Amino acid sequence: MAQHRPSLRRRSTCWAAIVIVVALFNLATPTTLAAQGTVAAVRGPVSGGQDQLPQPGSNRRFLDSVQIGLGYTYDENVTLGRTHDEILWDQSLALDASASRDVRISDTVRLVVTGLFRGEKFDKYNGLSNLSGGLEAEIQYRQSGAFDAVTYAAFVRGWLDNYASHLRDGSHYSVGVSARGALTDRIALSGELAHNERHAQSKVWDVIDHSALLNLDYSLGERGTLYLTGQYRRGDVVSDGHATLVNVSLARVFVLDDAFPNQQWFAYRSEARTWISTVGYNLPLGHDTSLDFSWRRVHSTPTAHLNFDVGGSLRYVGNQYSIVLLKQF
Predict the structure, then answer these.
(1) In this structure, what CATH number is given to the domain that contains residue 224?
(2) Nearest-CA neighbor of 220 among 21, 43, 15, 42?
(3) CA–CA separation, 203 vs 201, rounded Å?
(4) How many domains are there within the chain?
């Protein structure tokens, strides 16, 4: 398959991102580890004091936490294809980095600001490779430091996206609310409601959806953490496939996809109901390092009703298997 050569602008973006990550390492200070829901984190035993506010006047560096994740993913359906001849598999390597700062507002309220970076390189279909950088701001409220006290939050997240496929270049953001807390000394539960939007060079990737997420962590103590996540999304999805009557009828808009230049496939945006489930296990490798194994399954069903008979199901199904090495500073 033909490979896209990265432009000078993309090379500059990559080097700038590397410099930023190195700078974050230099500013970081060691912190106490805690379970953090579904985000890439070094998981540990559930603690009722995991959301304690920083004490005023404490000796702190600029950053409270820096976290790095290096992962491998096998995706059996990168196109989110509906039929067997529209399904393509690929594997990718990804580097994730985040750096956060807590700002104490009162005894019960704090602001957490987090810088985010992600780079992903695909093996077979380089058009899917991407660099993304963003920022998250979250206002957290916790009534007390009691073990069973719930942390409530409102957040906004924004990203800039740069793909080898220029049609996908753009930005996306999310706004929402969340809650998390410890049910027992081993079990933690968290939930999130969000509105998500993405804007790109092509209108096919101008997608809007609403989501609801629920996550359960079960601590095994020194042996690690098991976690289960379920998410429901209602709104736009994008899938690739042939120029068929079914695909065109389901789509609101479509375009010839530049990520698969030898396939002559089209990307279709349609409205759907999507279920995303994740099962994972996080194995500690030390005080600040862990290895995370996960299986993620995506099941998407179009909401449109066709006025002709269709052979087979209209659903789109994909499975992703990931191994991620996580380190927190």
Answers:
(1) 2.40.160.40
(2) 43
(3) 7
(4) 1
Identity of the amino acid at 71: G
For the chain, the C-alpha Rg in angstroms (whole number) is 21
Residue type at 220? L
Task: Using DSSP, state whether 168 is helix, strand or coil.
Answer: helix
Q: Report the C-alpha gap between 260 and 170 in whole angstroms.
A: 19
- CA dist., res. 18 & res. 14, Å (int): 6
- pTM to 2 decimal places: 0.80
pLDDT tens digits for range 153-177? 999 999 999 999 999 999 999 999 9
In a domain, 50, yes or no: yes
Measured at the CA of 24, the angle between CA 22 and CA 27, to 5 degrees, comes to 115
Q: Which helix (H) or strand (E) holds 14?
A: helix 8-27
**Is residue 3 situated within a structural domain?**
no
Q: In this structure, which amino acid lies at residue 249?
A: S
Which pLDDT value is given to residue 43?
A: 41
In a domain, 1, yes or no: no
List phi, psi (to 5°) of 153.
Answer: -150, 155
**Total length of the chain:** 329
The single residue listed with the structure tokens 């081993």 is 186
Is there a domain that residue 305 lies in?
yes
Q: Which domain holds residue 80?
A: 8-328
Beta strands in 105-257 (DSSP E): 109-122, 130-142, 151-163, 170-182, 187-200, 207-219, 225-241, 253-256
At position 243, the amino acid (one-letter code) is A
Residues 121-140 pLDDT 10s = 999 999 999 999 999 999 99
Where is 98: in which H helix or E strand?
Answer: strand 90-104
Backbone phi, then psi, for 139, in 5-degree steps? Answer: -95, 120
